[in-house]
Amino acid sequence: MKKIFIRFIICALCVTSSTGFAQGTATADVTETFAAEYMPATKAHLETLRQIRTADSKLFHELREAGRLMETDDEKDYYSYKIDAINLLAGKIVSFMSREELIIETLKDLYFKHMAELVEADDLAMHDTKIAKEGNVWLADRKDCRTIFEKREEKPDLEAEYLVFDLLTHIKSSLPAPPAEGWSKWHKTDALVLRKVGNFWIGIFEVTQKQWQNIMGKNPSHFSSSPDSPQRPVEEVSWNDAIKFCQVLSGQSRITPDLLFTLPMESQWELAARGGANHEYSGSNNLDEVGWYGSNSGNQTHVVGTKKPNGYGIYDMSGNVWEWCLDKTFDSRAVRGGGWGSNARYCTVSGRLTNGPGCRNGSLGFRVVLVHSSSK
After folding, report:
1. Which end of the chain is more exposed for a tag (fewer CB within 10 A), N or C?
2. Who contacts 55 (Cβ-Cβ below 8 Å, separation ≥6)?
3. Domain limits of the chain?
């Protein structure tokens, strides 16, 4: 029923946005000039309404995409706030469109009355005050559709085994254990899932193309033309690019002032890769069970999380893409784990190579860690 209601609201919004508001703006030129000269408070209020509508419409379309994703997955509590947000935003955007219409129609009526000398300057001032007063009430209504996002300021339980950071809404949550159905579908979402290992958290998946695009706005990947490309690891990113991603992500997350996203140190990477066991590869002595490499990849990357995880529940630390590490070796940076074109010996938990910090190619990607800034 919720999904049907979402579709109904979306259709109503699309119809309203393509008809009602277009008719209102057709009469806006003369009346807005009139408002700017005789009713400046009303002119300013009209511009505020439009700015809000533009911002909320952008967020609405992002959330509509999240709703489309939800329709293809099992409906989880994790997505429930998105249903509420879509419904609230859709209703509020339609409401703001109608308020713009009302202001423009009021201005049009006052303009013609003023030209006919039926309305004097004092009357215009009274109308201006009335519209501005009503406008404050209308703007206060907007808080209803924003309260749903106040969760983003909640601090997750830093003692929990897993942290989940939604790259779309910046809402943070914590989980004591994996969900009952596992993490198998989470690579399709906007969520960055982090597993606590020692005193840091590390992404259970390599950063995907969709996640990169959500943060950086453009997808640089070579393997970006397949339907499942958004869930494949991002590649063609340099060490410098990966550091920039982490800096932007840290600025958006605001988990605590002391926590920031960065690349893993080699020691952190290897600790996570070993997964509490002594396997040759991350999670197994049989590379085909846990990784995409030269003998099974078909010379391309694959959707993250489709192979068996290691003992810590972390995926793809052997194969798929080489992963940048933070460590510096003279003018080079370490890469670990091997990639889709690698020989098996490079995909061991101890295997490593180095590259220059500006190097990019279709087998270089990364995963993030969340660390205390004092331990960076």
Report:
1. N
2. none
3. 2-149, 199-375
Question: pLDDT tens digit string along 254-307?
Answer: 666 678 899 999 999 999 999 999 999 999 999 999 999 999 999 999 999 999
Q: Check if the beta carbon of residue 230 is closer than 8 Å to that of residue 218.
A: no
Q: Other C-beta atoms within 10 Å of 279: how many?
A: 20
CA separation, residue 339 to residues 192, 222, 263, 346, 351 (Å): 21, 14, 18, 8, 11
**Which residue ranges of the chain lie beneath pLDDT 70?**
1-29, 59, 62-89, 137-155, 168-171, 184-189, 253-257, 374-376
Helices 28-38 and 40-72 sit at what angle, rounded to 10 degrees? 130
Q: Phi/psi of residue 332, each to 5°?
A: -115, 170
pLDDT at 107: 82
What superfamily in CATH does domain 199-375 come from? paralog of FGE (formylglycine-generating enzyme) (3.90.1580.10)
| Amino acid at site 343 | N
Are the beta carbons of 367 and 234 closer than 8 angstroms? Answer: no
Q: In degrees, to the nearest 5, what angle opens at C-alpha 332 toward C-alphas 323 and 371?
A: 50
pTM of the model: 0.63
Which residue, among 278, 311, 314, has the nearest Cα to 162 in the 3D structure?
A: 314
